[in-house]
Specification:
Keywords: Membrane, Transmembrane, Transmembrane helix. By secondary structure, this protein is an all-alpha fold. It has one domain (13-276). The chain has 12 helices and 2 strands; from the N terminus they run ααββαααααααααα. It has helices at 13-34, 38-63, 74-92, 98-105, 108-112, 118-148, 159-183, 185-188, 192-205, 217-226, 234-240, 246-276, and strands at residues 68-69, 72-73. Helix 7 packs antiparallel against helix 11.
């Protein structure tokens, strides 16, 4: 009888482990990189605290003598403001143009030569940045607020892990949105127009300036489902202040995750399309 040779497919486990190690290393590098900007962090904390007082007094005035507005009591509104001020830098709605700048100068070619996809590399760096911001920019406003205002303390044990998941999903989702805005530089070169539209729209539609539930239900419900903006800031804050029953909270976080997966896939698609027609600007 002739011998039979068995062919064994190479295991993909080492590749997966290597991918996670690389991702972790880039994330740690992002944490160290942003932790060097200590003076900027202190200045940002002062700004967030000042605007925290302004926003808190405005929303408490809206609550007025009734003690509540749009289903939020005064303590929930105070927590909404102060934690929101800290999350603003963690989620980072604005201020990131690194990809667009590298496309404009042609430095993006260096990113394309690396073995890690640019979307993956920038996402890992952004998660490291968010980790540092959670310590340096979220904690101070969250500690200052209770010194001057009555704040809401969650009563359900599930709220804290669900809120952490909602914030993490918001960070990933916001990164995907910013990446897509920056990626327009592959075709436009000058991205000031898309950046201005993103800055104006994201602040209002994400719930930064006021809770979206202040709007009529016929407006904010379709906005919540049909656009990713409320999932950036409104959802994590509503989960934290327990604005809704637990099943509704879980559904809102599921919507977040759905948008995050969809827009990350869009980032990969746009990146592949851009690489096919990339024209290096400036040499």
């Amino acid at each position: 009888m002739g011998s039979v040779t068995a062919t064994v497919a190479p295991s993909t486990t080492p590749n997966v482990i290597l991918w996670f190690r690389t991702f972790r290393a880039i994330t740690a590098s992002g944490f160290r990189r942003y932790s060097t900007y200590r003076q900027a962090a202190v200045a940002g904390i002062v700004t967030n605290v000042v605007f925290g007082f302004l926003r808190c007094y405005v929303l408490l005035a809206v609550a007025g003598g009734a003690g509540a507005a749009a289903g939020y009591d005064r303590r929930q509104l105070a927590t909404f403001v102060w934690v929101g001020q800290g999350l603003l830098t963690v989620i980072l709605l604005w201020g990131w143009t690194e990809l667009a700048d590298r496309i404009r100068t042609g430095d993006i070619t260096g990113d394309l030569l690396r073995p890690v996809n640019p979307v993956t590399a920038y996402l890992a760096t952004d998660l490291g940045r968010a980790g540092y911001a959670a310590l340096a920019r979220l904690v101070p406003p969250a500690l200052v607020g209770p010194l001057f205002f009555d704040v809401y303390v969650p009563t359900r044990w599930s709220t804290l892990p669900l809120a952490v998941g909602a914030v993490t999903a918001a960070v990933v989702l916001c990164f995907a949105c910013r990446y897509l805005v920056n990626a327009t530089a592959y075709w436009l070169t000058d991205v000031r127009g898309p950046l201005i539209l993103w800055t104006l729209g994201s602040g209002v539609l994400a719930g930064l300036y006021f809770p979206l539930r202040f709007l009529p239900e016929a407006v904010y419900v379709p906005l919540w489902i049909a656009t990713p903006f409320p999932s950036l800031l409104q959802t994590p804050l509503d989960v934290l202040v327990e604005r809704d029953p637990l099943p509704v909270q879980v559904a809102l976080v599921a919507v977040q995750l759905g948008w995050a997966v969809l827009l990350l896939a869009a980032c990969r698609l746009v990146q592949r399309r851009a690489e096919r027609r990339l024209v290096v600007q400036g040499g």
